[in-house]
Amino acid sequence: MNILLGVQTTGNGHIVRSSALLRELRQRGHQVRCLLSGPSTAGRWDVAQFEPYQVCTGLTFSSRAGKLDYLRTTLDNKPVQFLRDVAGLAWQDLDLVISDYEPVTAWMAKRRGVPSIGIGHLYAFVHDVPKAGAGISHWVTNVFAPVQYPMGSHWHHFDQAILPPTVADDIHALPISTDEHVLVYLPFEDQAAVIALLQQFPAQRFRVYSGTEASGEQGNVRLCRIGRKAFIEDLASSQGVICNAGFSLVSEALHLGKKVLVKPLTGQVEQESNALALEQLQLGRWMHKLCADSVRDFLAMAAIAPCDWPQIMAPLADWIAAGHWDQPQALLQQLWPARQLKASA
């Protein structure tokens, strides 16, 4: 098949997940070209694997000090350019569009009648899952990146057509251990405030990753430069993870059996919904704001058992190739262990 893969660059999880799917599709002989939209890919983790790819502005959100900045989001997005990108996207030779919550490719497919599949966590919100805002289902299905066949992923299937989380091959290959440090990744927060919070616990070692180039030691806090290899090694050897409530990192931590404390980006309904789901599923804890009491309670938590999500990209690629996109039941039965299906019945 000739496939167009649209990748949202807001957050590293989209890139990691889409690169794994791209590799599986190309190994099966499909011709796949890619479109990336959102924040600049300069300095991102390994986007060269998407070649050949084109870049569009797309749509994204802006934040400041841990909160969604509505004014800046409005000013930064360029609706006229977005419409031009949708209208100018080549489509005549396409058999399928796959959108990892990428709006340019999704809207082109909708306008041109090209079959489209949505892969990614946000497409789970078309189903009855924990939600912090009633309007998120409408936003996913009708506004931002609408697709014909949404295949969302979540930490539980909720007895619906939902995939398990995507865990990259490099995470599956990691040796798991427990060192003295806690991994911290709060890129949407004020980093000075994060460091000040962590320094209230001088007996605990923290390794803080952020989007800055700073590195070094500040008491019990080690500042680390972003890099996939070092990051996941520190993840696999950590006692636990403190992070924003994005889906991919939390999924990787739970897969490895690392306790999690999340601070959702205020006003970002996906992250607030993720925090709600973590609480309802009893998989982790969350805090409304940077809070010493929440960190103290988190540090006192016992270790958790690994969730051990299956590797889903090869079966997913086979399902895509089979072309029966309105029939996901066999794929879901294969991916969710029978004991989990029975437990939720």
Write down the secondary-structure element order. Answer: EHEEEEHHEHEHEHEHEEEHEHEHEHHHH
Report the count of strand segments: 15
Indicate how many domains the architecture comprises.
Answer: 2
Q: What general outline do the C-alpha atoms trace?
A: globular
Q: In whole angstroms, how far apart are the ends?
A: 38 Å
Q: CATH homologous superfamily name of the largest domain?
A: Glycogen Phosphorylase B
Write the CATH fold name of the largest domain. Rossmann fold
Structural class: alpha/beta
Query: Could you tell me the radius of gyration in angstroms?
Result: 20 Å
CATH classification class of the largest domain: Alpha Beta
Question: What is the average per-residue confidence, as pLDDT, rounded to a whole number?
Answer: 88
CATH architecture of the largest domain: 3-Layer(aba) Sandwich
Could you explain the architecture of this structure?
The structure is a single chain. The chain is α/β, with parallel strands linked by helices. It has two domains: 2-166 and 310-344, 3-Layer(aba) Sandwich (Rossmann fold), CATH 3.40.50; 169-300, Glycogen Phosphorylase B (Rossmann fold), CATH 3.40.50. The chain has helices at residues 12-27, 70-76, 79-88, 103-112, 136-144, 169-172, 191-198, 228-236, 247-255, 269-280, 292-300, 313-322, 329-335, 338-344, and strands at 2-8, 31-37, 53-56, 63-64, 67-68, 96-100, 116-120, 149-152, 181-185, 205-209, 216-218, 221-224, 240-243, 259-262, 285-286. It has a seven-stranded mixed sheet, sandwiched between helices. A six-stranded parallel sheet has the order 3-2-1-6-7-8, sandwiched between helices. Helix 1 (12-27) crosses helix 12 (313-322) and helix 3 (79-88) packs across helix 4.
